[in-house]
Amino acid sequence: MRSAIFALAAIGLSGGAFAQEGDPAAGEQVFNQCSQCHVVTDDEGNTLAGRSGRVGPNLYGVVGRTAGTVEDFRYSSSMVEAGEAGLEWNVEDFVVYVQDPTGFLREYLDDRGARGKMTFRLRDEEDARNVFAYLRSLGPDGGEADSGS
C-alpha cells in the first residue's frame, strides 16, 4: 500500500512538472513564429521543424544545453559569457529569455550593457512554455528527460 501511494505521488509530481513546462502540440503552432530565424535539425541532418531559418542557432537539443555553444554559430559576446557563467537552458530561464532576450541577459550577467542578437519576443508566458515543451519533444531524448524545473 505504501509503495502504491509513493508511485501515485511520483506520477502526480512528474505530471505537474510537465504541465508547468507546457503543451508540445500548442508549442508546435507557436514555433511557426520562431521558424523565421530558427530551424531544428537533428544530428543526421534531418529537419524536424522550421524551414530555412538560419539567422538563429539550430534549436535541436537546446533543452539542457549550455547557452552560446552551438558550433559554427556566431553568438553575441553576452550570450557566450552567460554560457560560461553556467547558463543551461531549462524551462524557467528559457521562458524569461524568449519574452525579453536583452533584459534576461542584462539581469543574468548583472551587466546593463549586455545584449543578445535575438530581437523577437514571445509575449505570452504560456506560449513560451509550450515552445519549450515542443523543442524538448524534438530533442535527442524525445522529451523523456527531466524538465529542469
Give structural notes.
This protein is mainly α and about 150 residues long. About 50% of the residues lie in helices and about 5% in strands. It is built from six helices and two strands, in the order ααββαααα. The chain has helices at about 1-20, 25-35, 75-85, 90-100, 100-110, 125-140; strands at about 40, 45-50. It has a two-stranded antiparallel sheet with strand order 1-2. A hairpin with a 5-residue loop joins strand 1 and strand 2. The chain is globular. The two termini are about 30 Å apart.
Topology, please?
Layout: H1 2-21, H2 24-34, E1 40-41, E2 47-49, H3 77-84, H4 91-99, H5 101-109, H6 125-138
Antiparallel strand pairs: 1-2
Give a nutshell description of this structure:
The chain has 149 residues and is mainly alpha-helical. The protein has six helices and two strands.
Question: Taking strands numbered 1, 2, ... along the chain, how are they ordered across the largest sheet?
Answer: 1-2
Distance between the termini: 29 Å
Q: Give a quick account of the main beta sheet: strands, pairing sense, barrel closure.
A: 2 strands, antiparallel
Unreliable spans = 1-19
The portion of residues forming beta strands comes to under 5%
Radius of gyration: 16 Å
